[in-house]
C-alpha cells in the first residue's frame, strides 16, 4: 500500500475552506509520514502581512472574511485609524452608500466642533474658535434687546389720543414733552457731597423767600436725596410760613442740642416738611434773640446739616453786613440773585453784585444765577431784555420767573397749584442751578478767623 500524500490533500483543503485561528481537526502531526513532513518543511512560507505595533491586545480576523484581515489594536481604533468593515457596495475611499450614490465628506467646522443645526428654535453659534467679537456684540442692555418704540405722550391732544385708544395709537411725545424730560434729567445730575445755595437781595419784597421755597420744592420733588432750606433772616423770617408747620423748634434749638444729634431722625425732630419733601429749619421769631445768630452759629449749622442733606438753601436777609452773612458767603457753592421786574429791583440786584465784587467774592459772582421775578402782572415800560442782558454779562445765567396768582397770595406754597408756565420756569431754573453740581465743594474756602 503506497504512502498517502498528505501535503497535497492539505493544500486542497486550504483552498476550499477559509483559514481559522482554530487548529483544523484531523490527524495529528505525529501521524504524518516523514517524507510529507520533509516536503512541507522545504516549501517556502507565504509572505505575512506586517502587523502594526500593538499597544494592547490584538484582534485577529479570518483571512477571506468580509471583515478586514488587518490586526487592529485598541489605541488605533480609538484614533479612528482602523480599517472599516467592507460592507457590500461600500467603499471607504469614495464614500459610496449601498445605493451606489457617491456622498461627499461630511462638513466639519474649522474649529473641530460639531456645528449646530439651524432650525426653528436653534440659532447657529460662532463657536469658541471664532474671531474675537467687538465690544458691543455681547451687550445685553435694554437699549440693545428691546425693539425701539415711541415714548408715550404726557400732555395735550397726543396724551388724549393715547389714553382714548387704550395705548393702541401712540403719536409719540411732543417737542415740549421732550424738552421737559431733558430738563428733569439735568435736575437729577449726580451730586457728590452737599451743595449749598445762598439766596441774596438788598431789596425786600422781590420774592426771595418765595423763590427759596419753590426752588427747594422743585429739587425735593424730582430728586431722591434730601433737600433743606435754612432761614437765616435776622428780621423775623417768614420761610417757615411757606409750608405746613410741624414743629416749633428753630435753628437755635438745633444748635443747643447739637451734641446729641447722631442720625437723620435726630435732625428731623427740628424741621418741618412740606408735600414736596422739602424740609425747612425755621429761625427765631423774636428779633432780639435772632440777632445773636452769628457767623460761627451759621457755620456750625451748615456743618451739621451737610452730613444729612445733599442740597442746602439759605434764605438770607437784606443786610449784607449782618454778622452771619460772611459765613453764608464763605461756605456757599453758588448764589441766586433775586430781582423784581422793576427798575429799583434791578438796581438793587446789581448793587448786590457790586458789593460782592468789591469784597473778594468775584468767583462766587461768576457762578451765580440771576432771577428776574415778576411779582406783579405787568412790568410797565421796563425793557426787561436789556435788564437780562445786563445780568447775563456778569452772572452765569439769567432766568425769568412769570407772575403766578398762587404765589401772590403769600400763603403756603403747593407746586400743583402753580400754573404750567411757572412750573416750567422753575424746572428750567433748577436745571440751570444743577448744571453746577459737578463743582460742588470746589471753591477755595476762606479760613475761619476766631473772634
TrEMBL record:
<dbReference type="InterPro" id="IPR025669">
    <property type="entry name" value="AAA_dom"/>
</dbReference>
<dbReference type="InterPro" id="IPR027417">
    <property type="entry name" value="P-loop_NTPase"/>
</dbReference>
<protein>
    <submittedName>
        <fullName>MinD/ParA family protein</fullName>
    </submittedName>
</protein>
<feature type="compositionally biased region" description="Basic and acidic residues">
    <location>
        <begin position="67"/>
        <end position="79"/>
    </location>
</feature>
<dbReference type="InterPro" id="IPR050625">
    <property type="entry name" value="ParA/MinD_ATPase"/>
</dbReference>
<dbReference type="Pfam" id="PF13614">
    <property type="entry name" value="AAA_31"/>
</dbReference>
<feature type="compositionally biased region" description="Low complexity">
    <location>
        <begin position="43"/>
        <end position="63"/>
    </location>
</feature>
<feature type="domain" description="AAA">
    <location>
        <begin position="196"/>
        <end position="341"/>
    </location>
</feature>
<feature type="compositionally biased region" description="Basic and acidic residues">
    <location>
        <begin position="1"/>
        <end position="14"/>
    </location>
</feature>
<feature type="region of interest" description="Disordered">
    <location>
        <begin position="1"/>
        <end position="116"/>
    </location>
</feature>
<feature type="compositionally biased region" description="Low complexity">
    <location>
        <begin position="18"/>
        <end position="36"/>
    </location>
</feature>
